[in-house]
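Troubleshooting log. The previous structure file for this entry was overwritten by mistake, so regenerating from the original sequence record. Sequence copied from the archived sheet and checked twice against the printout by T.R.
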Amino acid sequence: MSSSTLTERPAPPAAPRPDTAPRRRTRVLALPEARWAAAATVLFLIALPLQLTGAPAWAWGPLYALAYATGGWEPAWAGLGALREKTLDVDLLMIVAALGAAAVGQVMDGALLIVIFATSGALEALATARTADSVRGLLDLAPATATRLLPDGREETVPTGELAVGDTVLVRPGERIGADGRVLDGVSEVDQATITGEPLPVAKETGDEVFAGTLNGTGALRVTVDRDASDSVIARIVVMVEEASETKAPTQLFIEKVEQRYSIGMVAATLAVFAVPLALGAAFTGSLLRAMTFMIVASPCAVVLATMPPLLSAIANAGRHGVLVKSAVVMERLGQADAVALDKTGTLTEGTPRVSEIHPLSGSGLSADGLLALAAAAEHASEHPLGRAVVDAARARGLTPAAAEDFASVPGAGVTATVGGRVVAVGAPARLVNGRTDAASTEAAELAAALEQAGRTAALVEVDGVPVGVLGLADRLRPDAAATVAALTRLTGRAPVLLTGDNPRAAARVAAEVGIAEVRAGLLPREKVAAVREQEAAGRKVLVVGDGVNDAPALAAAHTGVAMGRAGSDLALETADAVVVRDELATVPAVVALSRRARSLVVQNLVIASVFISVLVVWDLVAALPLPLGVLGHEGSTVIVGLNGLRLLREAAWVRARAQGGS
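Regenerated output below.
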């Protein structure tokens, strides 16, 4: 007997799996926050060159004033609302700082602060709206109608929402299943990647459970409904995503964690600087000027710019290299992760099955190429993923399958076709061998058992009812999967855990190949969420990487969620905090390392800004700092921290992050 193990070739881009809901996307300008931010930005960009080229103040002054009004009224209103609740937030503080800058002639600086804050609010509103869109769109995975069978045998088409527990529905080939239930009659294969993430359709027969929204194969099924539509797995995924998004603890940027104390302290100190000298007999104008100088030098402009440029530069750099990080808060959180949970199908693997081993049986007279060509001829007309994998493997070896006739597909069993006058069958070994004890059948059963034990899917090839060989198929590992797991282990100090809805054997095979010890397989979406929350209850900040609808609840529940972009479902892409657009898994540890570099620059900038503020404040309190010098020192500190943060825009910053990520 000869056998062959296929040499892996570079894979073509993975086709999107059929687990995405129709897109319902809120347009950017449909959001009032986006319209106000856009107006403020346009006005600022018109006014700035006019000011810099020496145009008279009447030309650019009104434009800046409109930029203040359009971009600042919403954060000002929010800040006043917080003030009514007896709290000070950074929105109101920024508005006060912007108005203070304008009051002493620094109109452009104030307008820039307004534009930054308005744009940030618009991005946050857009992210919230897009997530809501994808959650609503998920419900479209379940069909709107179903065929209900009446007791007298007649059929009626009804909305799936009207199906009740105990009803019987007919699911024809190619239809989506309308309700959670159990198969009453029929045999088929169901693609349930939307629920479990399994890369291959699952054979279903009498007594097996099926889920709403999953796609039926070539057989017809009669299904008895055992859950209401509101309690189906797909509906519970929607609820879990919404609940996780609402209950996820709001994460703030570092400076915002101390904004209350700083805001109150600055306002109180400014009032004291004005009132105390005035009470001691100082001139009103002098006291006001000193207080205004104090407010300018103590305002958090430099502190805000100490925080934002490193994070925004890191976002821009990551974006150039195929990682979309959705906000500065997310960029900060990525570097905090100290535990990682990875999905299998579509994340560590490519998400599509490929032929990995070819085993002609002894006495068959076939070579590995001959067996593969024979199987490809029979599978040529098949739409099953395994059949396509066999045909693709033959083409990759330069084989031309012979013409086939009388093609037939039997759900759960395989295909048959007449090739060169012989009947060739390719399918599940257990169904084709069916208890036979001849030598060829015994050898085939042993080979199939060994392949399945190793986490492969076995396909038996028969000619005129006699086994001639066994093919092994597997979801191929991404080339950078093992290196990524090792890099994440080094970065977090803890090996990632594998969370998958696939079967335990396939999960164990992948885990062993990439170096993961802890594996949880056969998980439904709610069980993935439970696994994430279990780690977070132990005090860990979990980074979850996934791609499917079934991963979305875990992505929402995690400290930070990263979705694989090329084959990712809409829900996963919108729920995740960051998206790996080019599906390069190795960029995940790189962006974590980049986040940590950004956080270190934030700390550096905060130290620089704090030193400047402290020196200027003490100077103003002790020796009446001249206003122009105070403004110069304030602006100088702003420029220094801004330039320091922009260092992360350089290509060298990404190269360094890749090196730190071990990729």
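Residues 7-23, 247-252 have pLDDT under 50 and may be disordered. Archived copy saved in two places this time.
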